[in-house]
Every structure is written in structure tokens, then in C-alpha cells.
Amino acid sequence: MYRCAITSLALATTCVVAQAQQHRFFPANALRGELVVTQFPDALMNGKPARLAPGSRIKNDVNLWVPPAGLTGQKLIVHYTVESSGLIMDVWVLNPVELANKPWPTTPVESAMWQFNPGDQTWVKR
After folding, report:
1. Domains identified in the chain, total number
2. How many CB atoms lie within 10 A of CB 101?
């Protein structure tokens, strides 16, 4: 998804900063919420007890995988998906560009009532 020619540490840092300002493509079933990893795999999603699925993936704001235990106690605004059993599966920590993309549904009811445009990653309330 991201490509940078890295020839030095300075360029690598510049590449990562540039990536943080891009909007990633999220699936239509991704919801927005506040995640706090309490003690892996336990978490709070929007202040309610939740659990990360076995094999769940968390990507930081520059789209790099991060271990959930390293995020313990941090309040993070994220997009996330839930598997059929109700466990949190995919999590993306949002960068400033993505945070500015509003509205974004926070519940399955909202996403069912709104219309998603995957091309420009926007939601429209019907």
C-alpha cells in the first residue's frame, strides 16, 4: 500500500511521517470507537468490556502492526471490525487525516442506516 525508497534513517523517518498523513482504505463494516487494552486480550471498547480475538491485528497510525500488550492503558481512537462471535478482530489506530473524516458510524445500527462510499471512504446519513 505504501512505497518509499529508503536510503537512510532520515528518509525512513520522513517516509513514516508522510504515511501517517494518508487516509487508508477501511472495510464498510469498520466502526469507529475508543479502545483501551486493559490486559491482553481484555479491553474496553467505548467504555464497555470487550475482548480481542485470537489472531486479531492492530495497526498503528502509520499502518504498522503493533503488539496489543504494548498499548496497555492507552486511550486510542480507532476503526475496528468484529468477528461473528463478537470479538474484536481488526483494529486501525487513526491518524489526524482519518480522524477528520466524519461522520463515521460507531454502531452497527448506524452503519446499516447510512450509505458508505468505499472510493472516497465517506459515509452519508440517509
Report:
1. 1
2. 16
The pTM score is 0.82
Cβ distance 85 to 96 under 8 Å?
Answer: no
| CA gap 93, 109 in Å, rounded | 22
Query: Does residue 49 sit within a domain?
Result: yes
116 burial via Cβ count (<10 Å: 0-12, 13-18, 19+): middle
Q: How far apart are CA 27 and CA 25, in angstroms?
A: 7
Residue 54 C-alpha cell reads as: 485470537
Nearest to 37 by CA among 8, 84, 78: 78
The pLDDT of residue 7 is 53
**Among candidate residues 14, 15, 17, the one with its CA nearest the CA of residue 4:** 15
